[in-house]
Amino acid sequence: MHRDLFHHVEIWVDDLAAAERQWGPVLLALGCEPFQHWEAGRSWRLGGSYLVVEQSPALRPGGHDRLRAGLNHLAVHGSRDAVAAALGAGWTVRTDTGTAVHLLDSQGFELEVVVGADDADGADGTVGTVCADGAGGG
């Protein structure tokens, strides 16, 4: 049995270049390594899990809206260094609770960086390396 919760998470974006500029530095600061690179996408891996950003030719127009049905945000275990990398890459802070920082990229995707010491057992609702939360609870 695998210990990673996710095999991979794939995010379809309208602008691959912007996504790579914004997600890349954050994922590197979180300890991920570049994994795959192709014309329409990029991925970064940590352990047995990886995150993909892709500008698929099958993408329907309309952009991402985290307040519609679907993915609300990703929550990851991280550090203030990862938050600093995000801010340096153009993310904005939506909210900072002291134990978690909710960030927004230029395409409307939200990343929650959980920085508190008490999150190790999943008490904050996150599980594993990357947690996709469509419930909008954070």
Task: Set out the fold topology.
Elements: E1 8-12, H1 16-29, E2 33-38, E3 41-46, E4 49-54, E5 73-77, H2 80-88, E6 92-96, E7 100-104, E8 110-114, E9 130-133
Parallel strand pairs: 1-4, 5-8
Antiparallel strand pairs: 2-3, 3-4, 5-9, 6-7, 7-8
Brief account:
The chain contains two helices and nine strands.
Sheet-strand content, in percent, reads 25-35%
Alpha-beta content class: alpha+beta
Whole-number mean pLDDT? 87
What shape does the CA trace take?
Answer: globular
Distance separating the two termini = 29 Å
Uncertain residue ranges: 119-138
Secondary-structure element order, N to C: EHEEEEHEEEE
Give me the count of strands: 9
For the biggest β-sheet, the strand order reads 6-7-8-5-9
Radius of gyration (Å):
14 Å
Helix content: 10-25%
Q: How would a crystallographer describe the biggest sheet?
A: 5 strands, mixed
In DSSP terms (H or I, runs of 4 or more residues), the helix count works out at: 2
What does this structure look like?
- By secondary structure, the chain is α+β, with helices and mostly antiparallel strands.
- Helices cover 17% and strands 34% of the residues.
- The protein has 2 helices and 9 strands, in the order βαββββαββββ.
- It has helices at residues 16-29, 80-88, and strands at 8-12, 33-38, 41-46, 49-54, 73-77, 92-96, 100-104, 110-114, 130-133.
- The strands form 2 sheets. It has a 5-stranded mixed beta sheet with strand order 6-7-8-5-9, covered by helices on one side. A 4-stranded mixed beta sheet has the order 1-4-3-2, with helices on one face.
- Helix 1 packs antiparallel against helix 2 (80-88).
- The longest helix is centred in the first third of the chain and has 14 residues, at 16-29.
- The radius of gyration is 14 Å and the shape is globular.
- The N and C termini lie far apart (29 Å).
- Residues 119-138 have low confidence and may be disordered.
